[in-house]
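lol ok so funny story. i was supposed to be doing the assay writeup but got distracted and ended up predicting the structure for this chain instead. priorities right. anyway since i did it might as well share w the group, maybe its usefull for someone
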Amino acid sequence: MGYSLALLPRCFILSRRSLSYSNKLQERSRGQLSSRL
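and the output, tada:
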């Protein structure tokens, strides 16, 4: 139990980082689409 609890914060930080990264990619692709229009 303690092992998983120690890993939780790291997974949370990684998931948040990947979420922000995917959001940036979506904004970039959205900007490219709007510029094409």
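The chain has a mean pLDDT of 82. The helical segments are 2-36.
back to the writeup now i swear
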